[in-house]
């Protein structure tokens, strides 16, 4: 059974990172995240306004699969991640 997680990712790239290395890193991160989005496991990604951060919703088979996805992020070394497991809310009319 698939489980939902909200994942906040705060990125802090070194200011002295070589511009070519930065561009390559960001291109690899974008391709990687879009691959998981196309798979249906990375359901949504939203920018946190005014921050170099995003809030994403994942639908995965459990902790192990989410861990696999997050550990594969090219930006992982520069990212602080907060994971929140989600459960159905009894007042959600969409769940009806």
Summary?
Residues 4-92 form the Muconolactone isomerase domain. The protein is α+β, with helices and mostly antiparallel strands. The protein has one domain (3-87): Dimeric alpha+beta barrel (Alpha-Beta Plaits, 2-Layer Sandwich).
Could you say what the CATH topology is called? Alpha-Beta Plaits
Taking the alpha carbons of the first and last residues, their distance comes to 19 Å
**What structural class results from the helix and strand content?**
alpha+beta
CATH architecture: 2-Layer Sandwich
- What's the CATH class, please? Alpha Beta
Q: How is the largest sheet built, in terms of strand order? A: 2-3-1-4
Beta-strand percentage range? 25-35%
Q: Which superfamily, in CATH terms, is the homologous superfamily?
A: Dimeric alpha+beta barrel
Report the count of strand segments.
4
Q: In which range does the helix fraction lie?
A: 25-40%
Task: Outline the structure in words.
The chain is α+β, with helices and mostly antiparallel strands and 96 residues long. It has a single domain, classed as 2-Layer Sandwich (Alpha-Beta Plaits), CATH 3.30.70.1060. It contains two helices and four strands, in the order βαββαβ. It has helices at 19-39, 63-71; strands at 3-11, 42-47, 53-60, 79-86. Strands 2-3-1-4 form a four-stranded antiparallel sheet. The mean pLDDT is 96.
């Amino acid at each position: 059974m698939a489980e939902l997680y909200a994942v906040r990712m705060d990125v802090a790239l070194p200011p002295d990172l070589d511009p070519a290395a930065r561009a390559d890193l960001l291109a690899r991160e974008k391709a990687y995240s879009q691959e998981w989005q196309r798979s249906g496991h990375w359901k949504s990604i939203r920018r946190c306004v005014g921050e170099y951060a995003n809030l994403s919703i994942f639908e995965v088979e459990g902790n192990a699969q989410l861990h696999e996805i997050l550990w594969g992020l090219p930006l992982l070394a520069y990212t602080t991640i907060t994971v929140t497991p989600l459960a159905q809310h009894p007042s959600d009319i969409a769940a009806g």
